[in-house]
């Protein structure tokens, strides 16, 4: 093709062709291809002269490998060394994602645009494990993207904390967005013990969108600042806790006709985008409920550890708090509360701050969480004629329940199961039923495990474009790594270790079979109906996988800054010396944590008997916790051994 030729819709490739040569037995031929850049042609020439030699090339390659290996600071050792190696590559994935963008970006057929809000927060999960140093500031900056009505900016600038008003004026509210910042913040606080973070101040984002995407603010235009102002024209700053409360409390009242949180533009599943009038997401209602409960727990820590009795909040928030719990049962009343609040902060807010007693606040949000979970348990648990039971996850744009049915007609989605399990909405028995139903309707070993949904055999235009994708592709029935891994995470959390392991193991085993997955080591965005891994390397699910293997499988957790060990390794994961180990950083110290299971006990049968820190027996009041103060005392430069004896 000449330089004026034009093709559209294909991926670009630059190719080099060498002359044909014939190699005799035992002979070899080396080609070195160098990509270089510089200011002038001479720069390129000198680089070429310097490195276009086989020996220099080899040493540069080693240097490059070393550079990246040094960046990957987590490694694992279990009986399955291929799994350990695969996970090593997974650790590398979040770095590639930060350089190249999300899984949909480099591929022509998967939409366009920058990194999204959800990705922004979830990418921090991996950073917290691998490179926590700058995370605090990053989190703080990101909170500046939240609007005072609980929604958030959707166009993210290039600079950290830069959020841009949408010039095209496309309103889209993803109802899950308010839930992710808390998950990341909670993890950060658990690891660091930095509860003070919740009282740091930050601005709010302001643009044309008001009333949670339903209306425009006629008094605002693009020339004005992108920050929420008070009636006096001052920029308003509220604490991080206030930001989180606004996100969760507004959601609580933003319900559809079944008193479940409205789906709006979509939730985690971007392709559920055609039910903005009447759609509802049970799945994310469950997650918000759990978040509310966890916010209450952190409030207790603020109260007890920081000795703070009252919290300062913007006065408008009282509207969302002083509601009689009986009124939670009424959709109309809820919507009225929400409307009242949103109208109050439509253009500006008063800027007045009130003091709310911690205990009152805790009681209020706990009440909301409890109500929401009970509502889901009571109304969304479904059973079919084949005697399988699980949670309905959605309502469509005709207000109809999405899941149910029997046999080949069964409609089931994984998302609603994941979050009801993760959030403790499902009780133990329900978790057991869900696992059975998932195994029956969603599990398919030939494509790597648990699919996102069954085949609806319908282009369901009253729910989303996902039903326009062929079944077994993308968000329609593929094994979508992100949700599959969150399923594993939820199962581990609830103590269903064997089942959680199965989810990860089937995904890993599949990816590891190159002949069918056709991918290098690592986790792809999804696995298509032919078993091929798609959009490899750039998926946010790598962060969740690292987190799950680290904090659940190996059970290495932060406990308000202390190191808590709660291994959930199966007997078959210990090597021939009865050991399983992890290398990582905690509280800025390199640690090698080794679990020793000499009695060959299965998970559930073993517990921690003794801990040795650099060969000295470690004693703490809580035998599975190593205090941060003791870790900080350790020498900075070297790796420290933590030996954990199980029995
Ligand atoms: C992508 C998006 C993510 C979205 C998911 C499902 O997943 O980046 O925000 O929730 O599709 O629609 P990822 O690239 O993280 O695998």
From TrEMBL:
Keywords: Glycosyltransferase, Transferase. Signal peptide: none annotated. The lineage of its organism: Bacteria, Bacillati, Bacillota, Clostridia, Eubacteriales. InterPro entries: 6-hairpin_glycosidase_sf, 6hp_glycosidase-like_sf, GH94_catalytic, GH94_Enzymes. Its EC number is 2.4.1.20. It comes from Clostridium neonatale. GO terms for biological process: carbohydrate metabolic process. This is Cellobiose phosphorylase. GO terms for molecular function: cellobiose phosphorylase activity. The gene is cbpA. Residues 67-312, 363-553 form the Glycosyl hydrolase 94 catalytic domain.
